[in-house]
Fold this sequence. Notes:
Strand order of the largest sheet: 1-2
Radius of gyration: 53 Å
Largest sheet: 2 strands, antiparallel
Number of helices: 5
Mean pLDDT: 83
Distance between the termini: 155 Å
Structural class: alpha+beta
Shape: elongated
Strand content: 15-25%
Number of strands: 12
Amino acid sequence: MLNSKVLFISIFLILSVMLSLIGCGDDKTVIIVPTPTYTPTATGTTGPTKTPTPTNTPGPTNTPTPTLTPTSTPTPGTFVVTSSIVASHTHNITVKLSDLESPLPVNVTYTSTTTDGHNHAITLTTTQLLDINNGNTVTVTSSSANGHTHNWAIMKTFAITSGVTDSHTHELTIKMVDLSNPPSAGVTYTSGTTNGHTHNVFMTQVQINSINNGNTETVTSSTTNGHTHNWAITKPLSI
């Protein structure tokens, strides 16, 4: 009988514990989901940043400036003629008036000034000297030096035509010797005759020097018959 009670009590306790556990099932069960472990992706090593090489924009091509031979100190009774531009430079020769006005029956040879370490020889025949003296222009070619030659357009005088006034013009003849040896007091030229009259044209030493250096000078004549004329005077160049 005692064993039966003990057994009963044991079963009762077991049932009580089981009911207690079943009652806990009403509570929400928390399920812990493990957080996945991420393996970090290896970051590559960044090398030094290269500075881009700048692109040079080509500039404009510069045309070389020709080396012009400066006019030397003139000698009375002579005039200077500048050559054509070859290999970016020029040369000068000095022509004697005596060679033109009283030419000898032999050729005359002039040696040019030195430019870039060289010079040239220019030969004029008696016929050419007389031709120049008579107011014509003679073009001669020099000897060769450093693989090139130059041309010289040699003239004793050159003519410039005025602007038109009262439907006519006048010619003015400029002496090369005046350009090479400008008088300190200046020089006065008398124009050619047109419609029965002439004009006087005065140029200062400064203006003559400017013309001899390759510039253009505009001068106005004296008044005749109630009008004047303008001359734009430029020294002819060898070509």
